Amino acid sequence: MPAITASMVAELRAKTDAPMMECKKALTEADGDLNKAEEILRVKLGNKASKAASRVTAEGIVAVHIDGTTGALVEINCETDFVSKNDDFLAFGKKIAELVATKNPADVTALSALEIDGATVEATRSALIGKIGENMSIRRFKRFSGDAKLASYLHGTRIGVVVEYTGDDVAAKDVAMHVAAMKPVALSSADVPAELIEKERSVANAKAAESGKPADIVAKMVEGSVQKYLKEVSLFNQAFVKNDKQTVEQMLKAANTTVKGFTLYVVGEGIEKKVDDFAAEVAAQVAAAKGQ
Fold first, then answer.
1. Please, where are the H alpha helices in the chain?
2. d(C-alpha 69, C-alpha 149), whole Å
3. How far is the CA of 225 from the CAs of 12, 198, 203, 219, 236, in angstroms?
4. Residue 102's CB: how many other CB atoms inside 10 A?
5. At what angle do helices 34-52 and 121-132 cross, to 10 degrees?
6. What's the CA gap between 280 and 226, in Å, rounded?
7. Which of 39, 47, 148, 194 is the most buried (most CB within 10 A)?
């Protein structure tokens, strides 16, 4: 069998971007045949993807694509913040956002069956898992289309906002930035979900009950707390971040602009993150290597 040189390993790694030791193993198995080793790695990368599928993906990116009045906002998750900065992962996110905007899939399953660069989204995702070595998933997306104009704002790659509006482009962009900063849950107080209001009312009741004041006073305290909450979480009632002397609603009125809706994605929001014991993980990998 020919000797497996460092240059051969480097060449295979350059072609596949697979881990160095995996490249060396594949070349050894292929008796130094570069093409055969590449095929072996393709098979192994698929296996790697399936093994990674159970790992929690709470990091990732938000990507946006807008073309006129059509657009999309997507969240793609991975396991670590390091991979969220990977160029291939970032490019995948941009392609997915464009695909959602142009093809209008019904859900993530339908999206996964669409094609990008000659392969299905699912096949591309699996190959990327094998290449990078981390699990990744398409968590959610929203497509926009219609008569309303679209403004977007990305705060790095972790927070993304799309605003549907008519009127001034600058004002709409300012609203998108405001949403990213202040994270309202609804356009107006009337739009705040009932379950959130009841949750706030329950907290306010518990606090007010501790005051020892008469029932009628407690009731007023609770109502005051709820109304304050509604103003704090509804976009139109929030103080505008660029000028806290006016509300967002007042700013929009002055700019002759109407916001019809907004969508805010924050990476990993609501996902329970796994706390890793790094030392234990390294020990487990060493033990597994010895057992091979």
1. 6-16, 20-29, 34-52, 87-103, 108-113, 121-132, 169-182, 194-209, 215-233, 248-254, 278-291
2. 5
3. 63, 12, 9, 10, 18
4. 14
5. 100
6. 47
7. 148
| Max Cα-Cα span within the chain | 90
Query: What span, in angstroms and rounded, lies between the C-alpha atoms of 239 and 157?
Result: 25
CA angle 191, 193, 194 (to 5 degrees): 115
pLDDT tens across the length of the chain (292 residues):
678 888 888 777 766 667 777 788 888 888 888 888 877 776 666 544 444 455 555 789 999 999 999 999 999 999 888 888 999 999 999 999 999 999 999 999 999 999 998 999 999 999 998 888 888 999 999 999 999 999 999 999 999 999 999 999 999 999 999 999 999 999 999 999 999 999 888 888 888 777 777 878 878 888 888 999 999 999 999 999 999 899 999 999 999 999 999 999 999 887 655 544 445 544 554 555 555 4
Q: How far, in Å, CA of 274 to CA of 56, rounded?
A: 7
Amino acid at 107: D
Give CA–CA dist 173/154, Å, rounded: 11
CA–CA–CA angle 232, 237, 241 (5° rounding): 80
Rounded distance, CA 64 to CA 48, Å?
29
Of 133, 128, 142, 160, nearest in space to 61 by CA: 160
